[in-house]
Write a structure and sequence with these properties.
A six-stranded parallel beta sheet has the order 3-2-1-4-5-6, sandwiched between helices. Helices cover 24% and strands 19% of the residues. 42% of the residues are buried. Helix 4 links the parallel strand 5 and strand 6. The model has no long low-confidence stretch (mean pLDDT 97). It binds pyrazine-2-carboxylic acid and zinc ion. The site of pyrazine-2-carboxylic acid has 8 residues, from helix 3.
């Protein structure tokens, strides 16, 4: 397999999707091997920092009575409740102080898997002049997939951080199928070693 080097340039932005305690080992909705991505994301963060390129972190930020919780008839256990430990970014993730944080799914009656849904993400990226998005995080088959779909629909170039995503895999193969769909939508899968 040829490994093409990628150089960061103006217009690039890093988007970390929902890298939050509840999606990590010990969390309320732990993604299998979710913790593996943190050191890899720290590698991407170091390169974006060195390049002075913008970083955006989305977060699932639910009210206690959110419609996606089983008590309300939704599919998930309670997770990422706003202002709780489970909704925080893990301390091991080296998020820069100037990262932009985008909260999503904040209204009780509406879920949002995509970082673009009912948020300021598109406006933030436009204001930063970003056209090429490097996207990683959790979970491959839910919020990463939806965010990549919306990014492609909005005309962004998407580089999927294949070594910095992990899937819930409720049905075995969900993560694999999500990656296939993202590639079919025009996303390019990359790994950290390609970033010089
Ligand atoms: C997510 C399930 C429920 C995600 C969020 O971030 O992928 N998954 N809420
Ligand atoms: Zn959620």
């Amino acid at each position: 397999m040829t490994v093409e080097p990628i150089h960061l340039s103006p217009g690039d932005a890093l988007i970390l999707v929902d890298v939050q305690n509840d999606f990590l080992p010990g969390g309320a909705l732990a993604v299998p091997r979710g913790g593996d991505i943190i050191p890899v994301l720290n590698g991407y963060l170091a390169r974006f920092g060195a390049a002075g390129a913008p970083v955006v972190a989305t977060r699932d930020w639910h009210p206690v009575n959110h419609c996606s919780f089983q008590a309300q008839g939704g599919p998930w256990p309670p997770h990422c409740i706003a202002n709780t430990f489970g909704a925080e970014f893990p301390t091991k993730l080296k998020l820069p102080a100037d990262a932009t944080i985008v909260s999503k799914a904040t209204a009780p009656g509406r879920d949002a898997y995509s970082g673009f849904q009912d948020t300021e993400l598109d406006a933030v990226l436009r204001a930063a002049g970003a056209g090429r998005l490097f996207i990683g995080g959790l979970a491959t088959d839910y919020c990463v997939l939806s965010t990549v779909r919306d990014a492609r629909q909005r005309g962004y170039t998407v580089l999927l951080l294949e070594d910095a995503v992990r899937a819930v895999d409720l049905k075995p193969g969900d993560g694999r199928r999500a990656i296939d769909e993202m590639k079919a939508l025009g996303a390019t899968a990359i790994t950290l070693q390609q970033l010089s």
